[in-house]
């Protein structure tokens, strides 16, 4: 981001109240204890803070925070609320960020503006690293000395090995010796990496005794909590008894009761969900899981609008603040990117699952339970989109994160938000919009003077074309798919070709199946049994980078059945071509006679 010198305005002092708010945000965002000693606090945020705005050559805008010596300590971009520490800050407080390690020669590549790829990262990974986490990058020779800062694109702790993988592990925002770092050297001295680091995060001594005292009181508090939970569950259980069918009218649930029920629905979702939870998910889809995991009690008050939060977005943000979720996005357009597990959270560890509502059977679907089971075996294709530079201004205008992945529905929501904010709806015909200069430059391909007015149904497709397309393949049989990478491009196509070799020997060739996680050797052995013919594994003739499995005989249908029924591929991801029959010759045209 800072390879070239950004445009920077004059520095201004930050008010002490704003500094305190900034410190509170840092402690919450990076899960730091609130009882940090003054010395440790000032390592992450000096007592005097100055701020200024910046603009990069790629039109990225944001704020830089410096100390009283004009050394940059934190920064953030306009399209994100994340406060990101500079190299100077993580050198003073090396315990601040989880670290991703890489090989020493890769650090030089990162300093030249590259991102850290998965194959270049070195396991094992810190368990704190989730998708979207701010991380430091250090080499394996000096494991604590951070040389780059960025955000993780995956829950890296899920990866035990990275050889043979693809994708960007860390999107790098700032590196040692980039233009942001060199702002600190404008004080007149060259700043070098420290030879040693202070790894101790110091806490206030008087707070230690208070913590011990609270630990002694913990059993009593837990007992009260248990009593409260049993009482509330007792109320709900009463509604299930046939002889007390009218108890719904008698038992009045308070707002506190309903809040408690929705909190426990989140715990149930994370511990024992009714259906597999595959993150990241848009907020609306995640709330479907919450509703599915509400207790089996038919009470009219158990609904989100009866809680103290009123709206799902506010509820999810409170759950994030309490440490259960990690969110991305602004306003109501948010995505749940990760969640804690039972193993890493004491509340979930002690949570006892309860009976949930049964899902209504879809009697009009025309499918049996057996058919549903078959259908659920298929891989699920998720399409994701990431904004490119030309539409960054749209994201800045609606205050949305530019660097996140968005589902098609979320992109549509962002576009509608921009249209509404800028009052682009045509009053004469509300099914159309009047393009402003920005949308006109993005969507008007023909540059016609009369093309300022477009139907609302004509806007989304050209708007999506300004995004980079990504995809992810989800296996519904897996309990967790958080480590499944999001891959650039569209879903690949498996090629199956039946053709005649020299003489009259028929063969069937299959290639480009490896992106779906299919092992070539195992696949060849399965075809050998199913087709009762010999198989070979080798490079594809047209593209030697692809592995190809060849089986003797015209077995296109068997190959397709194996790919769809066992490996879960959609038929739309497979292209079958039968070249064995050849092209029909055109009948000879009779010659005309004079």
UniProtKB/TrEMBL annotation:
InterPro entries: EIF2D, eIF2D_SUI1, Pre-PUA, PUA-like_sf, PUA_eIF2d-like, SUI1, SUI1_dom_sf, SWIB_eIF2D. Residues 494-567 form the SUI1 domain. One of its GO terms (molecular function) is translation initiation factor activity. Signal peptide: none annotated. Residues 239-251 have a biased composition (Acidic residues). GO terms for biological process: formation of translation preinitiation complex. Residues 206-251 are annotated as: Disordered. Residues 380-466 form the DM2 domain. Residues 229-238 have a biased composition (Basic and acidic residues). It holds the Pfam family SWIB_eIF2D. Belongs to the eIF2D family. This is SUI1 domain-containing protein. It comes from Wickerhamomyces pijperi. The lineage of its organism: Eukaryota, Fungi, Dikarya, Ascomycota, Saccharomycotina.
